[in-house]
């Protein structure tokens, strides 16, 4: 079924704008909660993925977080300068780089893990448990379409 047509499409009321606004509001609130530890919401994904061992290379992070390789390189450069992570050459393949969190980076994982859920939970406070599950289901369905 087509929900939008050339005749009824209004960008100011489209689901696209709503999703974009939701993302922007959430990221702004997460950025505010992390400002004192000098981490952004974009950097959060990298730090948490490494801390939870969901990814270990720039390529894996790029794919997982849907960030192009150029931006990923710049973000990793900044995090390396902030002493959050280290680039380590792979023993198995010298062309490959593995990423490791520093002691400071591991400490940031703990701080982020305490702050980010509070921001998201504040946005979800008026959802019932059933609405939360349905919201997750519908977002997953929308993303995979």
From TrEMBL:
What keywords is this UniProt entry annotated with?
A: DNA-binding, Transcription, Transcription regulation
One GO MF annotation is: DNA-binding transcription factor activity
UniProt-listed PROSITE patterns: HTH_MARR_2
Asked whether the keyword DNA-binding is assigned, the reply is: yes
Which residues does UniProt call coiled coil? Answer: none
**PANTHER family reported in the protein's UniProt record:** TRANSCRIPTIONAL REGULATOR, MARR, TRANSCRIPTIONAL REPRESSOR OF EMRAB OPERON
Q: Name one Pfam family in it.
A: MarR
Where in the numbering of this chain does the HTH marR-type domain appear? 12-144
Task: Please give the name of this protein.
Answer: MarR family transcriptional regulator
């Amino acid at each position: 079924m087509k929900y939008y047509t050339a005749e009824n499409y209004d960008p100011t009321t489209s689901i696209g704008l709503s999703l974009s606004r939701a993302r922007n509001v959430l990221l702004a609130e997460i950025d505010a909660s992390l400002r004192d530890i000098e981490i952004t919401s974009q950097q959060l994904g990298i730090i948490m993925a490494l801390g939870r061992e969901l990814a270990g290379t720039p390529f894996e992070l790029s794919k997982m977080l849907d960030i192009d390789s150029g931006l990923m390189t710049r973000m990793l450069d900044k995090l390396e300068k902030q002493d959050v992570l280290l680039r380590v050459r792979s023993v198995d393949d010298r062309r490959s780089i593995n990423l490791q969190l520093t002691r400071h980076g591991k400490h940031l994982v703990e701080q982020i893990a305490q702050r980010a859920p509070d921001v998201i939970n504040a946005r979800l406070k008026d959802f019932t448990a059933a609405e939360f599950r349905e919201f997750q289901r519908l977002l997953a369905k929308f993303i995979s379409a």
